[in-house]
Amino acid sequence: MAEFFSMGGYGAYVWPSYAMTAVIMAVLLVASLRGLKTTEATFERLKGEMAPAKQNTQETADGDEA
Amino acid sequence: MHRFANPTRFLRIAAAVQPWMAGLTIVLLGVGLYMSFFTAPPDYQQGESVRIMYVHVPAAWMGMFCYAAMAVASAVALIWKHPLADVAAKATAPVGAAFTFLSLATGSLWGKPMWGTWWVWDARLTSMLILLFLYIGYMALQGAFDDRARGAKASAILALVGAVNLPIIKFSVNWWNTLHQPASVIKMGGPSIDASMLWPLLIMAVGFKTYYVWVLLVRIRQELTANKVRILRLKQVHGG
Question: Using a CB-CB distance cutoff of 8 angstroms, which residues of chain A are in contact with residue B4?
């Protein structure tokens, strides 16, 4: 086990390489997923707020219907 | 191709494809990591440090691949004004920048024990650093205009001009003297690397690619939804 982690003496170079790759890829993914969730929540909220106004002005609130 | 350029239809397809990309990425990276550490042998010259290759090389490939994708999408956006092309280019930039940074950082960590230095100003490393600056410039330029359309256009032109850097990166190891080793996978006459090392490398590379598609879908969905939010806000101000 210790032998595996020492990576033939190169552990100090191998592990940071993998750790940095994992952290950066995970952060970018989580940030993107969160951004999507927040924007979708904002969209739903705005759509809800606009719904009563829609009846008065005869407007469709978004271009979702195709 | 035109059918997928409809943002509404794209949103539906993207939401359906996304879980598949997520699953594929997790499986590929799991298998790739296992092979990188347990089935791939140490190098006869570089010992265990060669395992850095399995993240370094796919990251560098992705840095270049994402830039090529960004340049093509920018060209499509400029010439045909496809509604999705600008969005796709914009969504690609941070992923490409992240991979380019990772290739530089892991390369540095590999260079220290093997070359005896973290960094040299040779053609391969310098052209890769320029690639990172191109990504950063692209993202900065996009946000630098009050008018979003102008920002998109200016950054698309930058992406196209910067594409000249791609062949320079690829052939830098042949054109100039460098510490960096020449190509051993993508070259005339086929790969010159043993199957026990080639397979984990390719699996990791495909895993990075599906990761890119996964993040790309998420970011495009976010961007399209943000556009709808902007339209609603305008209506709220002007129409209500």
Answer: none
Rg (CA), chain A: 24
Residue B225's Cβ-count burial label (10 Å; 0-12, 13-18, 19+) is buried
CB contact under 8 A, A62 and B232: yes
Query: Do A64 and B55 count as a contact with CB atoms less than 8 A apart?
Result: no
State mean pLDDT over B23-44.
93
Q: Would you list the domain boundaries of chain A?
A: 19-52
**Beta partners for B43?**
B47
* ipTM for this model: 0.90
Residue contact B239–A57, C-beta within 8 A: yes
Distance, in Å, from the CA atom of B211 to the CA atom of B29, rounded to the nearest integer, reads: 9
B93-106 pLDDT, tens digit each: 999 999 999 999 99
